[in-house]
Amino acid sequence: MLELIDWNQRISRKDYDLWYPQLEIELGNCQRAARKAGLPMIWVFEGWHAAGKGLLINRLTQALDPRGFRVHLMTVPTAEEARRPWLWRYWMNLPSAGEIAIFDHSWYYRVLEERLRGDISDEEAARAYGDILEFERQLTAGGVLIHKFWLHVDAKEQRKRFRALQKDPATAWKVTKGYWRQNRDYDRWVQAVEETLARTNTADAPWTIVEAAQGKFTRVKVIRTLTQRVRDALAARDDARPMTAAPMPVPDANTLVHPTVLDRVDLTLSLTRDAYEKKLKRLRSRLYDLEHLAYLAKIPIVIAYEGWDAAGKGGNIKRLTRGLDPRGYQVVPIGPPTDEERRHHYLWRFWRHIPKTGHITIFDRSWYGRVLVERVEGFCTEREWKRAFSEINEFEHQLVDFGTVIVKFWLHIDQDEQLRRFQDRANTPSKQWKITDEDWRNREKWAQYELAVVDMLERTSTIYAPWTILEANCKLYARIKSLQTVADAMQAAINQR
Amino acid sequence: MLELIDWNQRISRKDYDLWYPQLEIELGNCQRAARKAGLPMIWVFEGWHAAGKGLLINRLTQALDPRGFRVHLMTVPTAEEARRPWLWRYWMNLPSAGEIAIFDHSWYYRVLEERLRGDISDEEAARAYGDILEFERQLTAGGVLIHKFWLHVDAKEQRKRFRALQKDPATAWKVTKGYWRQNRDYDRWVQAVEETLARTNTADAPWTIVEAAQGKFTRVKVIRTLTQRVRDALAARDDARPMTAAPMPVPDANTLVHPTVLDRVDLTLSLTRDAYEKKLKRLRSRLYDLEHLAYLAKIPIVIAYEGWDAAGKGGNIKRLTRGLDPRGYQVVPIGPPTDEERRHHYLWRFWRHIPKTGHITIFDRSWYGRVLVERVEGFCTEREWKRAFSEINEFEHQLVDFGTVIVKFWLHIDQDEQLRRFQDRANTPSKQWKITDEDWRNREKWAQYELAVVDMLERTSTIYAPWTILEANCKLYARIKSLQTVADAMQAAINQR
Fold first, then answer.
1. How many CA atoms within 13 Å lie on the side-chain side of B363?
2. Which of B36, B45, B55, B58 would best serve as a mutation to test chain A binding (most A beta carbons within 10 A)?
3. How close, in Å, is residue B348 to chain A by CA atoms?
């Protein structure tokens, strides 16, 4: 692939002076239009050492309103970053609506530098390609414009540039051992680069190879490519039929094939108070020990609670955390998104809170809101929630791949039990704060939620992150089962180390 | 002080069983009431090693709704944290409205552990006390409830506990060399602890010394203290006359003593296009070099732009950044706060963006909004903006203390010039997006803003962070002067290293 590129492209000073000022204005206009449209953009710059990446980014940004972009130089992960799945640091630096994130090195650092340096195994590199494809697809599906550039020169030219840099005391420090290593290993690098370009050159996140013999040519080509891309994206938005989102209608009686997974739940399961107290005590001390062992084994743990209103999520979480050292866990309640969260991909707010190694995050409601409340209430479009099933599976897979233990609970009660609990709350002064009009409104949509829950359980119960249904008509039974499930999952992960 | 404490306090099992369940319920009620009232709380736990801090926090949190608190274990700063002023990591972990942040070790780690270990000099410790007092005062003035606990046992008891821990293989790892060092140096530690308690025991952020012989007694005392504190705080809120905020009226003609600092600005200063181009070119290459040198010298740089609408802030920032490597700076535009920002202290959103060592942050509008737009429009109360002058001086002092260079610009134009620019914008299609109804509304409040600006300049131009007024009727002149000012400030800081 690369050998077919004539990297030695140039344009004349005269043409450049004629075109470039106009191109800069166009790029500025594109930025403004994208900001107005709320379009987030990611521009990735990769290339050979000394191909002129730094200078290019420098000049490019001069055409931009500095209030609307951010340049991220990504190389070796910091200690904090290394304690999370490898894509975490990119999630944390995503552009919000209308902003531009410029990556000087990017997630491709992993499949190029880290791989060729031998920092990661071949198997890890193979998985990284999968992660990258998922990552970029999730973002572009979520409306982010991604464009990637590879700055290309040949090995001889690279050597020439290194020597020129070394001659000047002001730039000699730039030419590190890593630079020369790349030049010596140029052929091995070419293979890795070609594999990378071939595997990750998708329609929505394409690569442009830039012949980087001359700064002027490079800049002109990059700006032309970007402005065209932005214009196309904005035009496509204007053309697109506006996506409408509507609340789910009451499902047809035949939509669900009974008995569903929920119908089969045995809600008569129960525990006596005595048996409960005894088991609880034992489980608590077991969990306390396991938390410490998981900390030593550097295992991150994610626990997500979903369930019907009044099914007992809060009480369940309270019993679980009572057994834990509060320095090692965090409970994250998920309500309506804040406005910063709204300006990002919907998974961003969960990436923000994933635990680092040795820590536990408990989500009180979770990313499954996308396929539950957002689907039922019409807070997102049909395409969005349909896409979410695989996006969620990918998200969880990336966590598990890093060694994270995931436990997901659906707290199940039946309609009669819910009514009893609502009435009890309404009639008990000390519990009235627990019940709201929204609870009653949600209850009227039981059939819609039932359909959404069954879909969710069927589509997102994976081998690596299975759902556990808690039979919660008896609160005591549900609590013991959840603590037991968490303890067993932690134990299994610890044994595997 | 500490020698007068009879640390060996106990309560009987019977009394404990009688009181404790009720105390737990009360603490839970307090948490709920505080959440409803939007009261943020910070509970600090410090004490001797093995005094029972971990267990206390563990038991305390069992009485709380786990969705409303977060425990922060703060010890040695991470590499990222060490690249910012030392209080930064505490700012980043502040509770938002209605939440509880529990600190297991806190900012007192610096004046105890770090000081006694010799990690920081006596002078740094002395300054740290000042920083702590400012920090706590800023937070409590902003409505945060702070309570601090010191868990006390004597040296003999501590030794006994260490030995007991060491005997049990499950806990032996806890007793580190640092533990024994504290015991050996107990007397030196007592001095430091007493100094700390004495200097930082303020009315709004008090210390409670807890006799920690027995876990039961400790818990009862801590919960009683906290519930009383929360109840008092909520009652005081109810009693307080609601603070009203109102737009500033047109000031009386005699309010400002003319000539003010603004009257004395020579707005006839100007530059020809030729002279401008020549100077600009020289300054740019100088700034590019300085940025690199400042990076090597690990100097963080903060540049804040304030000024009249249409005074040319945007164009000025653009010329400044054009000379810089975009990997080393970030421009942060300050608009209305997001809802996450609204739930925190008003300085929090600026702490979020302060540069780490070797980096530059340019604020397009800044924390001075508090004493400008918020004062004029009545977005905050009179007490709040009056307090802000010293809070801002303290904030900037803490940055400078860390080695940060601060450059602050006021872009000054006169009313006629502003009108000309507004009309030009309104009449030029390509510039119309730049002018809004709000600009015209602000213009009507020129007299109010003038008063606010003069106050601001007079009260916050400090030796360590002086204001530079840019004579901006001639845009070219203002640009050159700002670049020159930044370059000189960077140069001076580099020379000092």
1. 26
2. B58
3. 15
Q: Among partner residues B71, B325, B433, which is closest to A54 by beta-carbon distance?
A: B325
Residues of B with CB under 8 A from a CB of A: 32, 54, 57-58, 61-62, 65-67, 69-71, 73, 78-80, 102, 104, 314, 317-318, 321-322, 325-327, 330-333, 338-340, 362, 364, 433
Q: Is B71 helix (H, G, I), strand (E, B) or coil?
A: strand
In chain B, residues with a C-beta closer than 8 Å to the C-beta of A340 are 338-340
Helix (H) or strand (E) holding B244: none
Average pLDDT, chain A: 93
Report the alpha-carbon distance of residue B377 to residue B245 in Å, rounded. 9
Do B71 and B125 sit in the same domain of this protein? yes
Q: Which residue of chain A has the CA closest to B293? A: A170
Q: What angle do CA A6, A11, A14 make, to 5 degrees?
A: 175
Instruction: Tell me if B256 sits within 8 A of B454, measured CB to CB.
Output: yes
Question: Residue B245: inside a domain, yes or no?
Answer: no
CB contacts < 8 A, A to B, total 78
More confident residue, A309 or A4: A309
pLDDT of residue B242: 66
In a domain, B257, yes or no: no
- Residue ending a domain, among A239, A261, A294, is A239
The domain in which residue B467 lies consists of 273-496
A392-424, pLDDT tens digit by residue? 999 999 999 999 999 999 999 999 999 999 999
Final residue of a structural domain among A197, A216, A239: A239
* Least Cα separation, residue A339 to chain B (angstroms): 6
Q: Total domain count for chain A?
A: 2
> Is residue B320 included in any domain, yes or no?
yes
Ramachandran area for residue A50 (φ above 0: left; ψ -120 to 50: alpha; else beta): left
Same domain, A218 and A294: no
Q: Which residue has the tokens 């963080």?
A: B300
Specify whether B187 is located in the same domain as B288: no
Instruction: Please indicate, yes or no, if residue A257 is contained in any of the structural domains.
Output: no
**B290 interaction partners in chain A (CB closer than 8 Å):** none
What ipTM score was computed for the predicted complex, to two decimals?
0.76
**CATH number for the domain harbouring residue B229:** 3.40.50.300
Six-digit token string for B161: 């506990």
- The token pair that represents B165 in the structure block: 């821990």
Cβ contact (<8 Å) for B66 and A317?
Answer: yes
pLDDT along chain B (497 residues), means of 10: 82 94 95 95 97 93 92 92 95 95 97 94 92 95 96 95 92 91 95 93 93 94 96 87 82 85 95 97 93 95 97 94 88 91 94 95 97 95 92 95 97 96 89 86 94 95 95 97 97 94
Residues A389 and A479 reside in one and the same domain: yes
Contacts of A25 in chain B (CB under 8 A): none
Distance, CA of B454 to CA of B468 (rounded, Å): 13
